[in-house]
Amino acid sequence: MFDNPSFDGHEGLHAFHDAATGLKCVIAVHSTALGPAAGGCRMWNYPTGDAMLTDVLRLSQGMSYKNAMAGIPLGGGKAVIWGDPKSGKSEALFEAFGRAVHSLNGTYYTAEDVGVDVADMTIVRRQTKFVAGLDEGDAASGDPSPVTAMGVYLGIREVAKRLFGTDDLNGRTIAVQGVGSVGGYTCEHLAKAGAKLVITDIDQEALAAVSARTGAVVVAPNDIYDVEADIFSPNALGAIINEKTLARLKVKGVAGGANNQLVVPEMGEFLRRKGILYAPDYVINGGGIINVAAEISGSYSREWVDATLAKLIDTLGEVLDEALQTNQPTNYVADRIARARIAAARKAR
Asked: Could you report the per-residue pLDDT of 82-119, keeping only the tens digit for each?
């Protein structure tokens, strides 16, 4: 663990196994400097345990930075369950996961992420109070994906403003990778704004539904990188900006809701050299955790969520402007700001 390239001084890494239910789970706590660690639970059929470890380490670090940039009183953490979300779910498995979360005594709050939905979190709630993204309860607000998608949409407009001098998306072509919860809602916002959509996903049912609602053109998953578009919006899994895909991209901007889009941080500099403006993923996709923070507070306020999201989009604009003015990669600028906020909070505590 300690010599894993993605280990970043994590405060804790907790592995759980429940033989009766088949649960194989890792919860990573990157930082609690700003507050209890918070981040969703992902269920994915990882090829190896090493891949699972790397994913949870990168995701939890990203949550620390995301929460710091969102200006909310939460640290960064993440959970991953090793299994197929289409065939491996059971009530007993998510109850076991709930017990695992509860054993950390509030150090970590969980919610939905890829492969996990509100119904799953409702089962988790039977075993622990340290869960958000619920449909029921005093501060429940349901699936946070619509708020994440709104932030991604507004972030795309911020990128367009820097690229084209206006945030009007009418007639702009947006290539969208992944049309699940976040990507699907984002497509609806873009279509209403008059954007031309080219979409892809491995889920053919979701792809057909979004295409029917938005009039989007559908391409094969591997072909999305070759689409000539104004902006590429990745909303599926991470590490999709790499040496192979970068050479194929025919866009002026990258702005999407997927976590850990860059296979390595240096890809931010390569994007800059190619003249592609990148919206750092953990800044543009922070809407969902803002919604979760409102739930965790115990008194959910949609007005507070909307106001905090607006501040986050302003922060994204400031990151983009500084990067453009100083010829720095946008992710380096965002990382510096996030680390400074976390360090200041740690010093204050």
From this structure: 999 999 999 999 999 999 999 999 999 999 888 999 89
Burial of 329 (C-beta count, 10 Å sphere; 0-12/13-18/19+) = buried
pLDDT 10s digits, 205-238: 999 999 999 999 999 999 999 999 999 999 998 8
Query: Which of 184, 211, 181 shows the shortest CA–CA distance to 196?
Result: 211
Residue 247: how many other CB atoms lie within 10 Å: 10
From the number of C-beta atoms within 10 Å of its C-beta (0-12, 13-18, 19+), residue 333 rates as buried
Count how many Cα atoms sit within 13 Å of the Cα of residue 256 in the half-sphere of its side chain.
30
In this structure, is the dihedral angle defined by the CA atoms of residues 264, 266, 269 and 275, taken in order, positive or negative? negative
Whether 66 is catalytic is no
Structure tokens at 307: 């106001």
Q: Is 123:39 a contact under the CB 8 Å cutoff?
A: no
Catalytic residue among 24, 78, 89, 196: 78
pLDDT digits (tens, 9 = 90+) for 120-164: 999 999 999 999 988 887 667 778 899 999 999 999 999 999 999
For residue 315, count CB atoms less than 10 angstroms from its CB and return exposed for 0-12, middle for 13-18, buried for 19 or more: middle
Token reading at 160 = 């367009």
Helix axes 330-348, 302-326, angle to 10 degrees: 120
- Coil, strand or helix: which one is 292? helix
Q: Which amino acid is at 3?
A: D
Tokens of 325: 């003015």
